[in-house]
Structures are given as structure tokens and as C-alpha cells.
Amino acid sequence: MASTPIPKLTFYRPACLLPPRSSFTTHSFSSPTLRVSTPRNRTGAVIVCAAKGANNKPLTGVVFEPFEEVKKELDLVPKVPQVSLARQKYTDECEAAVNEQINVEYNVSYVYHAIFAYFDRDNIALKGLAKFFKESSLEERGHAEKLMKYQNKRGGKVKLQSIVMPLSEFDHAEKGDALYAMELTLSLEKLTNAKLLNLHSVAERNHDVQLTEFIEAEYLSEQVEAIKKIAEYVAQLRRVGKGHGVWHFDQMLLHEGEEAVA
Q1: If DSSP codes are grouped into helix, strand and coil, which group holds residue 144?
Q2: Binding residues for Fe cation
Q3: Structure pTM?
Q4: 178-187 per-position pLDDT tens digit
């Protein structure tokens, strides 16, 4: 039984594609059905030429450049020292929206800190509410700092804006101070959520998948939970009115979490 002849790839050197043969090294491999020799140039690119067809005429040669796309990306690496090296596919609109959200978080934190100072006064002395608003202020500041770290991670520039001066008095003739402050808190949490959703839509519009994932994972679920919690506090304070019930509500906030620790 006659053995099947093994086809052989033959290489030719089109002048438009290949440098002189002296700049190549040849690597060969074979199989029961194919024998191939592949020259490599000094840059590491593999030069592949097709075998002769049935009519014994060579087909078109192909230059395989496996790192051609990487070469294009290398052009995106900035050479100016003032420009971020890490930035990639991060639009100016997304950068501005993140800076705006940082400002929102700091403004809300500032308001909560002012409410903390109010309830911590000696003639108000609602320590539970003071504790709650101090923790809330620190939490919002933490949100702002997390966004600042993200801005730097993506190669943006943090640009802090002015913070609006909050109120210093929170007593209300009809609602009292505790209910008024908690209703204000609920409105601020809803405003923050609306701003986060706007930031998310900006990221989607710019096809920034990484930013949308960051907002979803770090902020949106937590914000919805916070709104539900504050809404319940508002409902409870509306029930107890301005009298002795406020003190009991304050004591609940003061000792909240102690049972879990014990």
C-alpha cells in the first residue's frame, strides 16, 4: 500500500512584506499530513506564507502581527508628567459626575454634623440623636472619600467644590426638633439616591461598565436600605409626638447596637 505524500509548505519572499532572508530564523514542525517551516523576524513577528495551490502557483503571503493592537494602545500612554498614566476609557463627563457626587456627599455630611452639634447641646441633651447624626456624618464623609479614591484609581482629578453652610437651629413649632431633623434627613437621603442614579446613568451613557458596577456594588443597595430605615424613624416620631416619647426614642438610638455586642 502506497503511503500518502506529505504536502510541503514553501515560503517565498515578497519584497513588499519581508526584509532580507538573513534577518530570519527558521523553525520547522511536521505532522503526518503537513510539514511547515516558519521564519521569524528579529521583532518576533511570525511570517506565514501559504503553500502552493493545485496549479503550482503561490498564494498571497500574510504577515501575522500578534501585538499590533498593543502597539496602538502604547500610543495612548501619555508622556506628559501632569497626565495620569492609569487613565483609560474614562470620559470627562464621568470624571465631572464623580466630582459632583463627592460634593453631594460632603454637603450631606456637613448638614448631619450640624444636627449632631444641635442635639449635643446641654439644653437639648438628646444624646441618642446626637450619636446617630455624628455616625451619619462620618458615614457620608466615608462615601465621599471612597469616591475620591475611585477618581484617583481611574486617573481622574479630584476637584473639591464649595460646601453650603447648614442651619444651626432645628426646632420646629409644630413638629419639634427630633421629627423635623429626621424628616430633613429622609429628604437628604432621597436626594443623594437621586444623584447616585444620575451618576449611574452618566456612566451607562458613556459605556463605562466599570463605573456602573462600582456605583451598584458600593452605593445603590446601601442607599435604599438607609431610606427605608429613616422612613421608619419618621413614622415612629410622628406617632410619639413632641413629648415624653421623644426621650424614649432617643434612648433607643443611644443604646442601639449594644445588645448585639453583648
Answers
A1: helix
A2: 105, 140, 143, 189, 223
A3: 0.70
A4: 999 999 999 9
